[in-house]
User: Fold this.
Amino acid sequence: MKKTFNWFRKIAIAEGISFVVLLFIAMPLKYLAHIPIAVTICGGLHGILFISFVALAREVKSDYKKDGRWFRRALLASVIPFGTIYMDREWKKEEMMI
Assistant:
């Protein structure tokens, strides 16, 4: 069961990085340098990571008896740039207490 939380943290970091890359690298490349393939590739990867993040967050919530507030905070962190990277410190502490 501890592996679920570990995978959640890994996917959360990857999702956070992909979101930052999408916002601050791929989008400017698309609109300023007219290279739309950057958003196509990065956006697709980010979408897969986001769906994985939400699925794992639901699994962690269920497996570790987290409340709705925990889940809402996780979702909020995923839509704020650098949110999941910031929250990883808290999630690491939670994982260590398991």
The mean pLDDT is 96.
